[in-house]
Amino acid sequence: MTRIVRVGAAQMGPVARDETRAAVVERLLELLRRGAERGCDLVVFPELALTTFFPRWALEDPAEIDAYYETEMPSATTRPLFDEARRLGIGFHLGYAELTPDGHRYNTAILVDRDATIVGRFRKVHIPGHDTAEPWRPFQHLERRYFEESPEGFGVWRAFGGIVGMAICNDRRWPETYRVLALQGAELVCIGYNTPLHYAPDPTQDPLQGFHNHLVMQAGAYQNGMWVVGVAKGGIEEGVPSLAQSAVIAPSGQIVAQAYTTGDELIVADCDLDWCDHYRRTLFDFEVYRRPDAYGLITERKGIVPPPDGDGP
Ligand code: ING
Questions:
Q1: Which residue's alpha carbon is at the smallest distance from atom 10 of ligand 1?
Q2: What is the per-residue pLDDT across 161-182, written as a single tens digit (0 to 9) for each?
Q3: The domain that contains 161 carries what CATH number?
Q4: 50: which DSSP letter?
Q5: Is 307 part of any domain?
Q6: Could you tell me which of 132, 113, 130 has the C-alpha nearest to residue 121?
Q7: What is the pLDDT of residue 289?
Q8: Ligand 1, from 15, 195, 233: best to mutate by most atoms within 8 Å of Cβ?
Q9: Which residue minimizes the CA distance to atom 11 of ligand 1?
Q10: Does residue 177 belong to any structural domain of this protein?
Q11: What total number of domains does the chain contain?
Q12: Ligand 1 centroid vs 169 CA: distance in angstroms?
């Protein structure tokens, strides 16, 4: 019996700074209902889906900062999403800013099963950007001020008939993300993202944002024989043009569904989890072909260490 998960990538357009959680939840409910109409088993929402991408500002008021985080999940505001998902019998993946009871702040995502049970929680591992305001930038990317790097790493969970992993935004650019998930058996990886089109440290990358976005997810999918679902919060959010181009990518590396707008848009794909074996039992049979004995530097060394000066091999 084939294990097909019908996945809905629920791309969002901009969330305004003054948009209430309730208003955002209404948008998420609309996308969830569209997913149910399309027969989805799982609907994947973006990173930090409940609020505007607040790391673009150097906020000073602790109350204002804290207002962007969730201290409970679900809360009274987000519970309607869980209740409707349960009523529809549909699972979802949701990204949000998490403030833990003991004061830790993470860029977090959850995996929620069809009965509205939270089956998995992931906290972003690779935190990009900077931790103090840099006035030279047209807008900030202060994720390193607002979020801690997860101490938990990458996990997988048995759900929707397969093994599901999660990553968030910048995690998708690092090949280690996909490999660590694949080594745990992940067959489907959900990745939300908020990606400005302008990359202040190197604007030559700006015209390549769409290419880089698909490049890394297609490579990750193909090199690890797994499905990758990348979901944007895109469009011009508080004056910052952000990448959309959400996509569902097969273990072959092919894009099987792609958003064509920069707003709220649901794209749907039937993900045959058994298709992973076309790659995992052949070209990328890890057990046969991988050489961990040759990869030591990947975990032993953080930065680049070039060879000493001088000639010779
Ligand atoms: N955003 C970005 C990402 O990795 C970034 C960081 C910003 C990359 C701008 C390129 C340009 O897609 C998050 N939220 O990680």
A1: 199
A2: 999 999 999 999 999 999 999 9
A3: 3.60.110.10
A4: T
A5: no
A6: 113
A7: 98
A8: 195
A9: 199
A10: yes
A11: 1
A12: 7
